[in-house]
Amino acid sequence: RGFCRAYLNETQDVFLDGHVRAFDHFGGVPGTVSYDNLKAAVTKVLKGRDRIESDRFVALRSHYGFESWFCQPGQDGAHEKGGVEGEVGRFRRNHLVPVPRVESIDGLNELIAAAMAADDARFIAHRRIPVGEHFDPEAPTLAPLPAEPFDATTLSSHRVDTKSRVCVRQAHYSVPARYVRQRLDVRVGAEAIEVLDGATVVAAHRRGRKGDEVLALDHYL
Predict the structure, then answer these.
(1) Beta strand extents in 57-199 (DSSP E only)
(2) What distances in angstroms separate CA 152 from CA 87, 102, 114, 166, one per listed residue?
């Protein structure tokens, strides 16, 4: 019901944010989570199942107290993840074909949430209870959530250009014009960014894609 895949280091904040949302959705934390050898979690593949994990992923695991288990790379590990990839394919074919048209990431999240609810109500083969109820016996085995969720955002420093913009992950975002040629901190999340002057948020935007220019008219008035 919840799968998060990432292919580049720059998607690590999305990968971490997906964990925070998944644990909150399930109301607890599993003891062990299985992974493919994605770059957001693994910086180096060693012998067997040993891995050097990224610092941020280690911080996430330490915060929630779960263990990681990595599939074998290549053909040796193909059988270890086939069921998961098959389920992803089934979900995509049933709910995301044709490709949906949405106005925002919020709209896409709402569409997927409705599809998940529909899947919870379906029956598999001759089983007597729907998919959603199969989770009930397993829920008590989850560890409780920590008092505070993990902060999946990252903080970096950026120089404001002459057009009153900061460039973050190859997208441009406007800030108030008084900050031209100054350096400001930027907090980057999976869906939004905040530009900071010290502890004060001076600009907040929905996160854009590579090449986007996200501007607010008020920043230039």
Answers:
(1) 67-70, 154-159, 165-168, 171-174, 183-188, 192-197
(2) 27, 25, 25, 21
CB-based burial of residue 70 (10 Å sphere; 0-12 exposed, 13-18 middle, 19+ buried)? buried
For 115, counting Cβ atoms within 10 Å of its Cβ (0-12 exposed, 13-18 middle, 19+ buried), the class is middle
Summarize pLDDT for 5-30 with one digit per residue, the tens. 323 335 788 899 999 999 999 999 99
Helices (H), the chain: 12-26, 55-64, 82-95, 105-120
Q: Whole-angstrom Cα distance, residue 163 to residue 66?
A: 45
Q: Is 198 exposed, middle or buried (0-12, 13-18, 19+ CB in 10 A)?
A: exposed
Kindly state the tokens that stand for 123.
């029956």
Question: What is the dihedral sign for C-alpha 12, 15, 21, 24?
Answer: negative
Residues 27, 131: Cα–Cα separation, whole Å: 17
Residue from 154, 153, 178, 147 nearest 164 by CA: 178
- Quick: pLDDT tens for 111-131: 999 999 999 999 988 888 998
